[in-house]
Structure formats: C-alpha cells, structure tokens
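Re: that chain you flagged

S.,

Sorry for the slow reply, it's been a week of failed gels. I finally had a moment to sit down with the sequence you sent. For the record, here it is as I used it:
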Amino acid sequence: MKEIKIEILTLDPIMLGHCEHCEIVWQSFKFDHKKIQLKEYPQEMLETSAKITDFINAISKEIYAKVIITEALTLRGIFKMIKYRSGKLPIIAVNGKKISQGSIEDPEKLALEALDLIKAKESRTETNYP
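Prediction finished late last night. Pasting the structure tokens below so you have them in one place:
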C-alpha cells in the first residue's frame, strides 16, 4: 500500500507556551494562558481549525495517512498556494491532488470524498495475479 499524504494549507492559531515545568506551575495557580490566547483569535479562524481537526479525525478512523499542515503565510505556504492555484483557504490535497479549497461545510462528507478518491486510486493500481 502506497503512503497516503494529506496536505492542509491554512491560517492556523499559533499557541505560545512554556516549558513543561513552567506549565505545571501555571496550572497550579489555575492560570490557563491558552484560553486567553484563544480569545484573541477571530471566531471564524477557530471554527475552521475545528473543522480541519474533525476532517483529520474522520480520515484517521479509516486509514493511516501522513498529515502535513502548512501555515499559509510562510514561503512554503505561498509556494503551495501557487502550486494548487488557489488563494482560498484552507486548501486540502490528497497525494498532491487538490480536493477542497475555501470554507469546509461538512468535514465528515469531505473525509468520505477523500477516502473514495484514495480507494479508487488504490484499486486502479492493484494488479491481480492468479
């Protein structure tokens, strides 16, 4: 079975943290800096991030796939947007083929479409010998 690679280009919330020991100290004081950071992001970005997570979870239940998430506002992200000829984020590609661009309405449905694409490609590459 060929390795399956899923690429996701998106604007993703970046969480800043501390070392493990400092995190334990912060938690002992009931100070959760991650919740404070999340409040600073637009709700739309957080919803998109949650839908991407749902998509990855739905795919992971069925198959093992290498998932690469690329921040769109990096040089690599800009290169990938040019490669996939889209500026609408998020962009999702399976084995180098773009399957989605722009907002994700139903992550589970998109995961099923991706799985169908993967299985169709696998069935074409399999050869049956007697």
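What I noticed first: The chain has a mean pLDDT of 87.

Talk soon,
D.
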